[in-house]
Each structure stands twice: as C-alpha cells, then as structure tokens.
Design brief:
Layout (H helix, E strand, L loop, with lengths): L6 E3 L4 E3 L2 E5 L1 E2 L2 E5 L13 E2 L7 H13 L3 E16 L9 E14 L10 E3 L7 E6 L13 H4 L8 E6 L3
Length: 170
Amino acid sequence: MNSNHIGFGSVEGTIGGPNIRSVMIEQNRVLLYGPEDEDEEYWILPGGGPLFDETTEDAIRRHIREKGGFEIEVQRLLWIMELFFIMKGKGASSDGVKIHGIGFYYLVSPKTSKGIWQKEEFRGPDPKNRFFKWFKLDEIDDINLYPVCLKQLLNQIPSSPKHVVCRQNH
C-alpha cells in the first residue's frame, strides 16, 4: 500500500482504507475493469482508493482520468458497502489474507458524448493498467465479478444511497 493511501494491517488481517468505485451504465451495459494479467479471471468496477485529504468524489474522478483516460461527472452515491473477504494471490499466504473494507460506489457518467469510453474494450493512457470492457447487465451472472454481491445490486440501482454488507469467501 502506498504511504499516501489510507489503511492498516492488524493481527487478524488488513483493514483497508476507503475503496471508491464507479458505476457507469450506458445502453443497459456496465463498464468493468479487467484482470491485470492473464492468470486472473475476475472483473471489478473501475476505481481505487483516495489519497490522504482527497474526497471520495475527487478520488473517483482522478482514478478514471488516470486509468481510463477520460473525464466523468459524479451523479450520486449509490451504496456504502462493508466488504468482508479473503484475498488470495500475490503476496498472500496459502490461506489468503482476511480483508475488511469500506466501499463507496458512485453512479457516474462520461463528461463528453464521444471518447475512448465508447469502445467495447480499451486501455487508458498507461498500458500497465487493467483494461476496461463493457458488459451487458443481463450477462454479469456469467462472469467473475467482485464483490459478488454486485451481480444483484447492479440490476437494482437504488434511488437513494443504501448501506450494504457483502461477505464472500474469495
């Protein structure tokens, strides 16, 4: 974890700093962030963590600009999510690392009617970043989407912010 990000470790696991994610839905499709390498096969909503003294809305704008190469408008907060899961893979023991995190999920839209975000699949300015891809909402049950509770939530966008607890064994 970079020193300018918020979070800390404990004897039980890692308590992550705020996790900010964007929910961009266009033409009954959602924009997801792809695996970092070919050995991983899971998808997440684009976003990341805030820097120290950065609001969650400013953080999501920055992440999409830096990683996706386009500007967004933040429409509204959808969910505040408590996340409990076990992370396996890079740097984790064979049993994995317990993670307890808090997520802020924002409904966003692109600032312009044309841009890189319109492509079915694309990478942002840094080729080392994950790639972006559009998925039809009725097809997300067939992909490895994390956290898993998003499969249901993305098909039920709330009219006001909701508190969600998401526990998974991944």
